[in-house]
Amino acid sequence: MPNRVRITDVAPRDGLQNEAANIPTHHKVELIERLAASGVDEVEITSFVRPERVPQLADAERVCEEIADFVEGVRMVAGELPRGIGCPDRPGGSALPVFSALVPNEKGLDRAIAFHERGLDLKVSLFMSASEAFSRKNTNASISEVLTRFGPVLERTREANMPVRVYVSCAVACPFDGPTPPERVRKAVNMLNETATANNVPPDSIELDLADTIGVARPDDITALLDEFSPREIQRMTLHLHDTNGSAADCVRTALALGIRSFDGAAGGLGGCPYATVEGQRAPGNLSTQTLVRAVHDAGYQTGVDLELLEEAGRFAWDIAHSG
Ligand code: HMG
Ligand code: MG
User: Could you confirm whether 273 is annotated as catalytic?
Assistant: First the structure.
């Protein structure tokens, strides 16, 4: 079992999408550049959803333009970089992390692919839910309608050689439907696998990202959830934890022991899905990447992250989100 753990920072997307302050594009770009310098493996930089539904990320194109320039600048200094997916093991490898963006449908994919010509090869983050109620709130569609949208998107990502992750939200509980039985997550992943196969995409090529959208998981929940999946599936799996009860770091330790080697965090612990808000109560923030990386290191595993640079990026993320 490898000792290297992959870290994705989703602060520029999941972290900022729910913030009320008007955050200027150049601050978002600086956050992305600081995260890239901290040594994380992947940064989810923005979202190509309907701008009216998530106004905070309506500047997705402008963010990507700036990041395309940044990548070009790094290329000029570091020489030719592997295109598309960054090196899975950054130390001594790629000078840049993978950059990914949230995509809900073909229109979102068109917007992401447009940056290919500008030298920015984005990884595509699709999202679905294990809970019907959240699926409708978040995507205006049932689980099976979302999968129907995925079909052509998956096929086109394969043709364009774009790596894909698929989030499965509410993998532990739903803000509207309550606890999610692990079998329901299994069923959602089976449906995803069928969609992928029907569109000529090998399910094994998709990174599965199981999300505790409302941050209520306890270690036993993680054990019960992962029990539904084979070691081979766990190998291509990421865990996306929000942190409401302060038990996310314990969940990370449990997941490591069960073979998970990839986690998401958000610098500064920002974030939450605007469509997971109930009764005026704001959706819970993501597990902070600093807490995540410390938990991973303390458990005896390695990352490519420089904690000091990450702490600075976390403070910067907090400042830009709260200086409105
Ligand atoms: P819909 O409302 O069903 O849209 O959107 P539609 O297909 O009926 O189209 C209506 C109009 O929207 C059309 O424009 C489309 O062109 C336009 P019109 O012809 O009326 O002028 N449109 C778009 N425009 C730009 N980009 C697009 C796009 N798609 C349609 N991609 C959709 C369905 C899913 C797109 C919409 O409901 C949406 O954008 N929802 C936002 C969902 C979201 O961003 N949620 C937060 C992120 S998910 C999350 O946080 C969870 C996660 O972190 C994991 C976890 O923790 O659980 C990932
Ligand atoms: Mg999330």
Answer: yes
